[in-house]
Every structure is written in structure tokens, then in C-alpha cells.
Amino acid sequence: MSVSRATFLAAAACATGLALPAAAEFRFDNDSGGYALFYGQFDPAYLSFDDGVSTFGEVVDNGHSNSRVGFWIRQPFAAGEFAFNFETGLGLRPSFLTNQLFTPKAINWQRTSIRKVDFSWKTDNAGTFYLGQGSDATDGVAHSDLSGTTLVTYNSIADTAGAALFRTAAGALSLRTVAQAFPSLDGGRTGRVRYDTPSFGGVTVSASYGEEILAQAVDFETADIALRYAGEIGATRIRGAVGYSRVKFANGVTRHDTMGSVSMLHESGFNATLGAGNRKETGDYIYGKLGYQAEWFAIGGTALSIDYYDGDDMTVAGSQSQSMGIGAVQSFDQVGVDAYLGYREYQLSEPGTAYRDATSVLFGALWRF
Questions:
Q1: Rounded CA separation 315/348 (Å)
Q2: 0.90 exceeded by the pTM?
Q3: Domain CATH code at residue 248
Q4: FRET partner for 334 with CA separation of 20 to 30 A, picked from 99, 172, 325, 367?
């Protein structure tokens, strides 16, 4: 066993041991109605990827919801609430950076691990204003999902094994990655200003302008607008969003993305999710998922799902990318743990180039505290 893997496993074992008692809330209130809340999560997993010729496996941090810590400070202020949120990943080996040729260090915290340094002011009637490193208006727009299985089956397919390389039909490793073939076109996080309107009948409109401020030698600016809906119709919960993002890079290249998603959860436990996206400069995709949630065991809820992604022109003109996944998540309510298992198949074809089909298996457990 390598030193880095041993280090990762030791950390996982330690944190898992700490997770045995039910997690307590780390909240501290003041005398004027405000409070500070500390939180975090630990999400170790094992990833196995078969490229059609060989298989690699590694202990990783699940890229669908990485290990992180953070805190909130909230304080009533001027007919509203002032808040500050700091959040950072722990810098553990991400599943989406591991491939046949490269295994990241077990622990490698960098400033790009920082997720949020975000100030906000939520007013009673005028909406919410944001300033700092945080979510752009389109962050999460492509990922509306009420299935309860986003730890393993999710529109952001590349979070599982995005750096993994496809093999050509002849068996040679190519430079084509899973992430290139299966983008969700969802927004991200930047140093930005953002505004969210108040909710009108469950509808909220958001707009933001941001620049990359954490990654070195990466220079771009992004302008985003999005519309979100959250509500219920009869016995069905509904979450949906549509958005548009224009990203301008320092080299003059501009990217235009349109994306959207909707998810519905019936009180019976049956649920359905649909997503789609278009990149003006390349191609488009459609994504669908069917799922079921049940209370079969006293320890906690169970969620099952199957999903499918179909993309056109994502890598080159004329390319086709398909992926099918199945996943299961079992909650252990008493200890605040969600255990999960997911299986996924990947297919890619390009004019003049044939690739071998690939598969991945991801299993692990998420502990929130």
C-alpha cells in the first residue's frame, strides 16, 4: 500500500470512528438574535474504473459532494439579515482528478479548495444581495434533483471520474476524458456580485457577474442569469430552474451556455428528473432520471434511481456520448451517515475514431456534522 493511500485510509478510519455518535450542532447564539454555526462533512469513497482494457481503483473523496468544513455567521440587520459564510474543501484526493496515468496526493489543500468567502444581506422585501467568492446565478441550475441519490447518480456525471481516459478501439489510451464527453454545463463559483429577487409564487430570478480569483493562470469573467421555481402541486414537490451563462476568457474566446432542469417527487416516493443543456460553440445534451424513495428499514430511508445522459457534438462535431447509471443510497439517521453505491457505463464515438466502452463503480459513505 502506498504512503498516500495509507494516509487517506487512516484519515477515513479516524473520521468514521468519530462519526459513531450522533452529530451535535455546533451553534453559538448571541444576545441580539444572531448566531455562529459551524458545520462540515466527510465523504470518503472507493472508485473503480474499467476502460475496456485495464482497471484502476483508488480511495478518493467523492466529487459529487466533497469533504468540507465551514461556518455561518448570521445577524439581524436593517429589516433583514446579514450573513457571512466561509467554506473550504479539505483538499482530499478528488474522484474527478484520478485516472490511469495520474493519482493525486491523498491530501493536497490549495487555495482553490476554498469554496465560499461570501457576504450576503437578505432583506425583508427587496431580495438578497451577495458579494464575495460564492455561487454564480447559474450554479445548480442544471442539477435540480429530488431523487435522494445525487451522491452517485447525478447530472454532473464527470464528478465521479471526470479525468478518466477513454481507450481507442485498438486499445491505446486517448487524450479524451469523461469530463469532455459528459458536461452538464452547470454554473460554478467565482468572486462575484449577485442579486436574487424575493420569491413570487415560488419563482426567484437571480443575476450575477463574477471573475475567477482563486486559480492561478486562469483568467475569465462570467455573466449569469437564472430563474428558479420551488413549490408543490397536490401531492408532488417540484424544483426547477433555467439559466444562461456567458463566459469570456482572457484569450478572447467566449462561451455561451444555456441549461435547465426540473425534478418532481410524489408523496408515494416515486420521482423523476429531467435536464438539458446547450453550448453554442459545441453541442447539447439531454438527461433523465427515474427514482424511488422508501422507508423499508428503521435505520433510515432508502433511495434508488436509474439515469441516462445523451450528448451530441460535445467533444467534436458529430460526436455522440451516452451514459447510463444506477445508484442506491441508504441513510443511517442515528449517526448522520448516508452510505451509497453507484454503477455507471460510458460510451463515446467520434467521426473517424471508435472508443471502447468504459464502466465505473463508486461506493462510500457521507457523514455530515
A1: 9
A2: yes
A3: 2.40.160.10
A4: 325
